[in-house]
Amino acid sequence: MEEAEFKAEMTEEAAEETEIAVESEAEAADETVEAEEAEEEAEEIEEDMDDSIVPLAALVSAGGNDGNGRDGSVEAIESEESEETKDAALASAEASEAEELETIEENEAPLAAPILLPAATEENSWALMNLILVIVSMISAAFMMIFNTGKSKAKAASAAIAAASFIIFVLTADLSAKVVLTDKWTILLAVLAAASLVIVAIKERKTEEEAPAEFASAAVSASAVIGK
User: Which site in 123, 175, 186, 199 is 20 to 30 Å from 214, CA atoms measured?
Assistant: First the structure.
């Protein structure tokens, strides 16, 4: 489940980055269209200015002088021309800024592709449950060795199970890799651990059953010694 969630998160991040890139391209296209429209407006303004200019001589002959000795129509035309010039300059500045932004966006480095980490597999991981089962088998064998004196088949079987579990874990687990909960060897190690626990339980039960008989035999021997 953790691997599936991790893959889903990485896929969502890649999709979000792709959407951001698409939005950036769309904004760049809109700015390009706005720049073209601004240039067209500037050209139209210049054409209007050319059409609206009339010979000063005709204006002087047609109009009268104001109190300052200047023609009022000429002043009005000059003010209109200055306003139109300012508008044209602003439009040209906006167009140049849009072109600069478009150039910067085109030169930006592309977004790096998301790095997907490889999912943990049986070849590059080890199971925590396997380690726990091996420890259980080894503890059972140690219990049999310490608390049961003498030689018996139960002690030998418990020791063999612990050794087999340890060897299987060492040969199949790579402790430098990623840890997982279980793998294909967990069932086998679980069977071995259960067998070692069953051996301990059977041996303890026999010990409890044999204890009263041993006590009675010791009491009879003590009575015989006392009678002598």
Answer: 199
Place of tokens 């407006």: 41
Q: Position of tokens 């340890």?
A: 166
Q: By residue range, what is the domain housing residue 213?
A: 125-227
- From 114, 89, 99, select the one nearest 8 (Cα to Cα): 114
Cβ proximity of 130 and 189 under 8 Å: yes
pLDDT digits (tens, 9 = 90+) for 92-139: 777 777 777 777 666 655 555 555 444 445 567 899 999 999 999 999
Instruction: Give, as one character, the DSSP assignment of residue 31.
Output: H
pTM: 0.42
Instruction: Report residue 32 as tokens.
Output: 């390009």
- E strands of 21-160, at which residues? 125-127
Domain boundary among 107, 137, 168: 107
Q: Which two tokens stand for residue 175?
A: 């402790």
Task: Give pLDDT tens digits for 29-83.
Answer: 788 878 888 888 888 877 776 666 555 445 545 544 444 444 445 566 667 777 7
